[in-house]
Amino acid sequence: MAATARILDFLRDRRPEGPCLVVDLEVIADNYRAFRRAMPDTRIFYAVKANPAPEILKMLADMGSCFDTASVPEIEMALAAGATADRISFGNTIKKERDIARAHALGVKLFAVDSDEEVEKVARAAPGAQVFCRILTDGAGAEWPLSRKFGCEPAMAVDVLMHAHRLGLEAYGISFHVGSQQTRLEAWDQALEESKAIFDAMQARGITLKMVNLGGGFPTRYLKEVPGTGSYANAIHEALTKHFGNAIPETIIEPGRGMVGNAGVVKAEVVLISKKHANDNHRWVYLDIGKFGGLAETMDEAIRYPIVTAKDGDEKAPCVIAGPTCDSADVLYEKVPYDLPVTLTVGDEVLIEATGAYTTTYAAVAFNGFSPLKSYVI
Amino acid sequence: MAATARILDFLRDRRPEGPCLVVDLEVIADNYRAFRRAMPDTRIFYAVKANPAPEILKMLADMGSCFDTASVPEIEMALAAGATADRISFGNTIKKERDIARAHALGVKLFAVDSDEEVEKVARAAPGAQVFCRILTDGAGAEWPLSRKFGCEPAMAVDVLMHAHRLGLEAYGISFHVGSQQTRLEAWDQALEESKAIFDAMQARGITLKMVNLGGGFPTRYLKEVPGTGSYANAIHEALTKHFGNAIPETIIEPGRGMVGNAGVVKAEVVLISKKHANDNHRWVYLDIGKFGGLAETMDEAIRYPIVTAKDGDEKAPCVIAGPTCDSADVLYEKVPYDLPVTLTVGDEVLIEATGAYTTTYAAVAFNGFSPLKSYVI
Prior knowledge:
- The structure is a homodimer.
- Chain A has 2 domains: about 160 residues, Alanine racemase (TIM Barrel, Alpha-Beta Barrel); about 120 residues, Lyase, Ornithine Decarboxylase, Chain A, domain 1.
- Chain A contains 10 helices and 18 strands.
- In chain A, the strands form 3 sheets. In chain A, strands 1, 12, 13, 14, 15, 16, 17 and 18 form an 8-stranded mixed sheet that branches. Chain A has an 8-stranded parallel beta barrel with strand order 2-3-4-5-6-8-10-11, surrounded by 5 helices.
- In chain A, helix 2 packs parallel to helix 3.
- The radius of gyration of chain A is 22 Å and the shape is elongated.
- Chain A starts with a helix and ends with a strand.
- The model of chain A has no long low-confidence stretch (mean pLDDT about 95).
- The interface between A and B is large, with 78 and 78 residues.
- Chains A, B: Its EC number is 4.1.1.17.
- Chains A, B: Pathway: Amine and polyamine biosynthesis; putrescine biosynthesis via L-ornithine pathway; putrescine from L-ornithine: step 1/1.
- Chains A, B: One of its GO terms (biological process) is putrescine biosynthetic process from arginine, via ornithine.
């Protein structure tokens, strides 16, 4: 989680101007190896959306990773990084038919669906492709729960997969997502129980499903301790054995945050510290990065990043932390104020840790005239 | 509010691929003239952040507008559009000292402050400049209320302005912002009463303030009817007369949404329509634009845009509306579902009206691999 020596050296030597993200590739390599070691029978599809920096994709492609993509540009980035099309999944359940056709033309064979309508588009634009149906889970225990946007009720998945079969697609498997930053290990158990029921219902109709996509949800450590990769692997293995016995299907995982979250650190600067009235109990600390500069996941104060300063040994007091734009919604932590050193002053540098995932690409293109977050991959 | 004939012609003739914003300059020109007519004694500072398209800035500069800017790049854009530095205000209360110095070097003389700390930066980096102190208002009645991020309690403003005076700055005036999309006409009355009290307190200390910056907050019509510019002008004029009598100060306004909101229309496409289970009461309608593609102001369903389809004569039924990314937070309207025609199908075009403000620059730079919102100014 903490900034690595390589990151600190880079910041000290290069002194980049303005807020920036620095990502340490060695941490990502360690994470990849930890996933591979913990789940040797599971294929790893890195969720490109978490951080699509070309250096990251290239290294993971070289290490043998597969890629979960959300759009045609992400497919093209994975191919450019050296992944072959058979290692790429088009994992977004919401695709334009012409984008499915482009993915098909690029050789992609594996597509996510969660409705008859999407099955029909895939059948027309990518005939013969493999599809997996995403099912809804309740997402309890996740810090960034997934609402009901993706997936259908398990009872409907059988109909969707039978529809795919009838239209000449290969009904290949099931996917689910327990919710991002999921710390409740049992979350996978219920989803796998439901997956097994769908496998059985399909088998009764003469179709053998082959794959369970276990999704992402593997957490990064922010302020609170989280279980390690090994604990997740054990919980998932136990649930697979419990529900599938000795007929465990092919499995894949889609780590994004769990692969790159702890590999990145944002360097930012204190622009202003002020109070709203003479007796205000809380200082307002304004940074040169905020919700529209890459820290969008602070929305509703969902993700609470560790913030490190050079003065952390000094006494601390609660602050409201806000971004630099003229948008009043650009406040990071206000409902639950954040303790920062009382000696912190304007111009001080702060490090916002565990920001390797879902930061650079979330940044607004030019809101208030500010540039998007710069990124250095070392 | 509705798409103009020029916008509809442009979309029909050019058939731009992908989601895009089309802005009609003639609507903006009409809005500018309406503000000037309704408030002939007030200088208009267009809030560049609402939409910084060069064509818009150029036209407004030619018409005589001044510009409220949030950053050095916005100052540079206003200068490039032909505004002289004396027509530019650096209206962000959160500025790096080196950015104040750059603004000063570019000739900008008018700066916003709301704390002693910011006053000290301005005094060092822009000696002799004019400053106005932003005060907090409660924002009641605004659809996009402004929290407490900007401004200080009125009681503290006198101290801040006296501090500016002692450091050689010109204590020039007061600013406030009643909250964006403010429909309660009385909102300005309370803020002007507080402004007058600060004028009096400064006068008692031998300093004559000259200006009240009435801020923005002028609404665009989305789904609900809003009062016209004339009603706002009357309410403000009455409040000014009530509190300042025959010594009405210089006033400025900073319309952003009210200047460009109704001039733009987003063209989008239905990517998928599905249900979550066989008996689902709500269809899920997925568009190719969402919260990260430019419609960030749907956050908490705050702004409810009018959505127009070619099938609006048909029966309608409630839908959840979501964007195309793999982010479950990318849902536009779910708590209060949105009525759309039951005949709407995948591939249909929809027009999202009143999207001229706070859309293009809010778009994420590349989230999920999707391009930022394209913009055409005609």
